[in-house]
Amino acid sequence: MNQRTPTLLYIDDDDALARLVDRGLTRRGYNVVHAASGEEGLERIRSAETDGGIDVVALDQYMPGLDGLETLEQIMAIPGAPPVVFVTASQDSSIAVTALKAGAVDYLVKDVKGDFIPLLHVAADGALRQAELQKARDEAEAEIHASRDRYAALAAERELLLREVNHRVGNSLQIIASLLHLQASSAAQEEVKAALTNAMGRVAAVAQVHRRLYTSQDLKSVVLNQYLDSLLEDLRRSAEGNRMSRLTVRAEPIEIDPDRAVAVGIIVNELVMNAVKYAYPDGAGPIHVELTSQGDDLLLSIADNGVGDKVKADPRSTGMGQRIVAAMASKLDASVERDPAHSGTRIILRFRRVPAAPGKTSTAAAS
Q1: Could you count the other beta carbons within 10 Å of the beta carbon of residue 358?
Q2: CA angle, 308 as apex, 307 and 310 as ends, to 5°?
Q3: Which residues, in sequence order, are CB contacts of 214 under 8 Å at separation 6+?
Q4: Least confident of 99-113, 241-255, 259-273, 311-325
Q5: Mean pLDDT across 90-115
Q6: Pair 257, 296: CB distance under 8 Å
Q7: With 179 labelled, which of 80, 123, 208, 259 sits at a CA distance of 20 to 30 A?
Q8: Cβ atoms within 10 A of the Cβ of 274, count?
Q9: Which of 331, 256, 329, 339 is CA-nearest to residue 296?
Q10: Half-sphere exposure in the Cβ direction for 243 (13 Å, CA)
Q11: Alpha-carbon distance 150 to 144, whole Å?
Q12: Which of 251, 236, 247 minimizes the C-alpha distance to 288?
């Protein structure tokens, strides 16, 4: 494929010098077009698309009508204007500075014999290379902006889809929890009622995470104080009679990832329900959930002022709740301890705010 011959527009009222430039640059591979005034040169540039295009301009300073600096100013105002090499017979350096500030890419002092033509050829070649580099830079920046716009659009679409998924999953889980509640309400056997109520609480803990994600600005994290408030409100509503009337929560606004939030919620559900069943055999009593931070660690405690170690073992217990707590604690890489100094029962879980790197996990101890 043959490369197109570059076209240089030479704007100068000196016809003899224009002919020298034509001959000198034609031999050097240029197609030269002459304009005898600034007005004619501007018209040539403006109609360049129909005339085959102007690649570079050599512009004289002293001309009747518009002088070189006035013409340069108007050339720079034309969208997509070609690069301009400013040419003058003056030795005044202030003209060069003014021309370069106005947008010229180079500056030459001419002579009437045409000895400057080799320098004009070098300057024109340099101007073309600079224009090509600028064009490539502009195209690269435009592609970067377009890529960013495409990425932003895809990210927005992905976020919208994730919100919709979390909304639907949350609704579906809530329906399941409601069905379990209805089934528990109609169950005749206490064991069945208890099992269904426990299952409902576990489903509700997961559903609350999805509801949090649907309404949150950040789909990658759950704010635990808001989550625990909503979760415990669900437990209050689902509890029999007023046995949950003294359930309280105090939690810091700590953000963790959704998977770990689910584990926290299920642990809270299991330990609170366990306290409801066994801590106060003669009625209701206070149950307190607390979440605090200690450096990089989080401390979750569920406490009651009930019978503590004096609780009688339930022969109907399957130990499912204890196994679930142990499994969720393992998911959090949490230690689980009983506070021996507490008058009732106080279970403390300690786990990292951010999951430990693979190979650096600790063993969760369940008690």
Answers
A1: 6
A2: 70
A3: 163, 166, 167, 170
A4: 311-325
A5: 89
A6: no
A7: 259
A8: 21
A9: 256
A10: 18
A11: 10
A12: 247
Q: What is the pLDDT of residue 270?
A: 87
Supply 50's token pair: 């129909």
> Could you count the other beta carbons within 10 Å of the beta carbon of residue 44?
18
Whether the pLDDT of residue 112 is over 50: the answer is: yes
Segment 247-289, tens digit of pLDDT: 889 999 998 888 888 889 889 888 988 888 888 887 778 899 9
Label residue 184 by pLDDT band (50, 70, 90). Answer: confident
Average pLDDT, the chain: 83
Give dist(CA 120, CA 91) in Å, integer.
16
The pLDDT value given to residue 235: 76
Q: Is the pLDDT score of 52 beyond 70? A: no
Task: Please give the average per-residue pLDDT across 87-93, as a whole number.
Answer: 85
Of 206 and 31, the structure prediction assigns the larger pLDDT to 31
Structure tokens given for 307: 């019978």
Q: Among 66, 139, 76, which Cα is nearest to 57's? A: 76
HEC states along the chain?
CCCCCCEEEEECCCHHHHHHHHHHHHHCCCEEEEECCHHHHHHHHHCHHHHCCCCEEEEECCCCCCCHHHHHHHHHCCCCCCCEEEEECCCCHHHHHHHHHHCCCEEEECCCCCCCHHHHHHHHHHHHHHHHHHHHHHHHHHHHHHHHHHHHHHHHHHHHHHHHHHHHHHHHHHHHHHHHHHHHHHCCCHHHHHHHHHHHHHHHHHHHHHHHHHHCCCCCCEEHHHHHHHHHHHHHHHCCCCCCCCEEEEECCCEECHHHHHHHHHHHHHHHHHHHHHCCCCCCCCEEEEEEEECCEEEEEEEECCCHHHCCCCCCCCCHHHHHHHHHHHHHCCEEEECCCCCCEEEEEEEECCCCCCCCCCCCCCC
Above 60 in pLDDT, residue 200? yes
**pLDDT tier for residue 363 given thresholds of 50, 70 and 90:** very low
Provide the pairing of β-strand 297-304 with 287-294: antiparallel
Q: Are 87 and 58 in contact (CB under 8 A)?
A: yes
Which tokens belong to 24?
Answer: 């000198």
